[in-house]
Amino acid sequence: MHIRHFCWVVIAILVVMIPSERRLFGAPPFPAAPIPKLSFDATANAPIQSTDWNSNRVTVLVFLSLDCPVANRYAPEYRRLSERYHQRGVRFIGVHCEPDTTREQAAKHADEYRIPFPVILDPHGALIRATGAEVVSEVVVLRGDRTIAYRGRLDDRYTLDGKSRENPRMRDLVQTLDALLADKSPPVAHQPAFGCPLPQPRSQSK
């Protein structure tokens, strides 16, 4: 009787220690479906369609903000990686999701921080809904079919409590891109990122 009681106690402890099925099986916190067909205004004159990304071997969505210090500090790294991987079929896209950010403001921000890749406006947060992104500075890596391969931090320069180190030890985006370009799966599908909260997606009718 005592042994049976002990076994139930152990089982109860294990149940408490496993917070959810998602955590148990490591399911990534983003949809499995491809990014839907969407159209965005861009800092350039012509709108950008999400279907355009099918011609890329890999697409990297970089969530930006006019005044998020974390994302702005990463600007040189965004630029370096976009130039490094461009010849291998990787395209970076900057995404502004603040509802009040104008095309002129986004263009000025890109010029100030020397962002060399296209920048789109997503005032309704369609890409937030489609990717599950939570903070500015997150990156979302898409395969050629617009399914998500990775979402999360660019590297471990920032810890989740906001502390920073001069040089990162883990370069998650680099590892993801290198794996995909070698026709392999990324080492991990998600790494939580520290940054400024993204706005709540709003209805298209507003």
From TrEMBL:
- Superkingdom of the source species: Bacteria
InterPro entries the UniProt entry points to = AhpC/TSA (IPR000866), PRX-like1 (IPR047262), Thioredoxin-like_sf (IPR036249), Thioredoxin_domain (IPR013766)
Please name the Pfam families in this protein's record. AhpC-TSA
Which PROSITE patterns would you find in this protein's record?
Answer: THIOREDOXIN_2 (PS51352)
Q: Where is the signal peptide?
A: none
Q: Name one GO molecular function term.
A: antioxidant activity
Cite the Thioredoxin domain residue spans from the record: 29-182
The protein in question is named Thioredoxin domain-containing protein
Please report the organism this UniProt entry assigns to the protein.
Tuwongella immobilis
